[in-house]
Amino acid sequence: MKIVRLSWCVFLLLMSLACQPRDVQPGLWLSGDEVNQQIDDWGFTDEIEEIYVETKPWYGIPHSTTIWCVVFAGELYIGSYGVEKKAWENNLAQDPEARLGISGKLYKVAVSRVTDKEIAENLNIAYNRKYDMEEVFGNEVPEWWFYLVEQQK
User: Fold this and answer.
1) 40, 45, 98, 120: which has the fewest Cβ within 10 Å?
2) Who's near 70: CB < 8 A, 6+ residues apart?
């Protein structure tokens, strides 16, 4: 009986450690304090390098990952790059509801792809201003695409 309890405790401990994403390693559930008040100014994220997004895959267990963000024209945006869409992007294409983890706080949001080329160009400039892309990627800065984040109640 004690072995079973100990096994469950070890299992739960390992699961809790595997929940939060770490750098490029994805995670599961995000933890933190739920924020229910409306955020009118996401400017506090200007000083934050990385945030987390938790999406809902078809199989029902949350998928979370570390992402970059930027505020432009008063709105919060997240970005992605690379040849193929990432798991979180595919999940959002199926269900735009997500949660953001920012400095230990959780925000219910809906996320939608930016299709306006002018806004995307401005977001690219804002990303380059916040994150030194040449320092990160060298001379081969990949193409980025962006997503608008809208807080949900």
Assistant:
1) 40
2) 45, 76, 77, 79, 123, 126, 127, 130
